[in-house]
Write the structure tokens for this entry.
Amino acid sequence: MKKLLQIELIKTLNNSTFKVILVLHFILFLLLVYVSTRIDLSVPGFSTQKMFMFPNVWPLFTWYASWFNLLFLGIIIIILTGNEFSFKTSRLMITNGLSRNEFLLGKGILILLISAWGLLLVFLAGSVTGFIFTEDFSLIKFFENTSILLVYFVQAIAYMCLALLFSTIIKSNALSIMMYLLYFIMIEPIFRLFLPKLVRPYFPVKVISGLTPVPEFLSLASDKSFISTNGQSQLDLESIGILPKAIPLNTSLILTLIYISLFVIASWYIVKKKDL
Amino acid sequence: MSEILRITGLTKKYGTLFAINDLSLNIEKGNVFGILGPNGSGKTTTLSIVTGIIHPTRGSFQWFGENPRPSSYQRIGSLIETPHFYPYLSLYQNLQLVSKIKGIPLKEINHVLGITNLLARKHSPFITLSLGMKQRLGIAAAMLGSPEVLVLDEPTNGLDPEGFAEVRELILQEASAGKTIILASHILDEVEKVCSHVAILKKGKILTSGKVHELLLKDDLVRITTIKSDELYEALIRGGWTKTIEKEKNEIRLTLSSDKSPGDLNEFAFKNGFVLDKIEVLKQSLESQFLEIIK
């Protein structure tokens, strides 16, 4: 395990593409956070500033960050894994005695590390912003809704595992990235339309992206708290029809874990059978 | 002699094309085993299968008398086709990866970079190397940690004549240290100079295999010059010494029968009162034999 970690670190920390993407991720995320906090729209009863107070800041920032999961973190994994196959460096690993399982496990370690990095970034950005904007700070408010950070962590892993699968199936990196993104924005959504309404919410992209749903800006920005203690909004936008009916968070989490397992098993099978 | 590699009925099909077809081989400890064949004869495919990077369609192989496990490969140093390294990592970092996988102390890296003349480029990214240097790094990686077995696929590919000689010297050194070496090559000269055993491959099948000196060098050409050439010519034919014989002026050119050596010939001539001005043994050109075999 330690050996695999060392190997992955040598490979990734010296890779300039990896470094550039991570730095871009860092800068753009903080820029988005900064710019959005500068927006100051207030009408009586509502203020955008409220969105940046504890605990409202957590669902908002995890939603921001989820876009970076999809775009930056997933693509990093495609590049790092795809390069192993297209530069045939996977051969260097295997002929010197790394098993194919260990090879894939190394990528798994990388996914966990990158997810942890994403989590840290959201946590720090959320904490700092929250401290600045919250007028009456209390630890209870600080920790309220922080469980969504864990959900964000699972989502990052899920996106990267799907990216891993694409990079093992498709030989060309450019094509993997394209198919990965197209799958999210077009292929699955269009495919879903042809299926009965009942099964539509259970598709991988729907489930995984649904983990960090679009925040209910109205309730977050409102003076009144519409969030009850069980984390469910009392301002039922779903029943009004503003937001589509979603499946419960716990179900989504379990489904996501199942999808992660499926992505990993499929990648494992492909790497096992692949001629490198 | 213990068995290092046993290949049984190995077959690899790409679509309808057989890259190798029902190939079987045994390689024993201490052999310098040449796999000789023209381009596209299946040399690289065979070595890629036994080093675990591609899967055979049929057939099996065993390393060190057991079914291959990832840990078997930690005892083998290999260079398959062209060297594949991380282009952005330095030579040292690339070899560091190999050391980590195989559990070799990092101080060995300088040693192999030294013997392959790459020490000065230790911290250059791999991508900045010339073709010959990349090849030498491939050899350095294979030799890292001094493994029991070396699998080298056309190791002199892309090297200049000096590099050629150096690599050949390295292989001979490793062989004399008792290492088992499996060497694929399309260059006869290379196989002849370094290998103890050879298998000749054509279109994925083994045409013939055996010891190099038995298989490729059995008919040496002997040239003799003597004053009484006519008499000796007659005597040799009558004595059943030769397989082929021809005479031109004072020079007789012959290939000896398989039970006779040039020494025997010299003794026979001397005892029968022929003084030989010159006796010369010419290794038969492998080129012609090789071309004959693969026709």
Observations:
- Residues 228-232 of chain A have pLDDT under 50 and may be disordered.
- Chain A touches chain B at residues 3, 6-7, 10-11, 14-16, 87-99, 102, 273, 275-276 (CB under 8 Å).
- Residues 100-133 of chain A form the longest helix (34 residues).
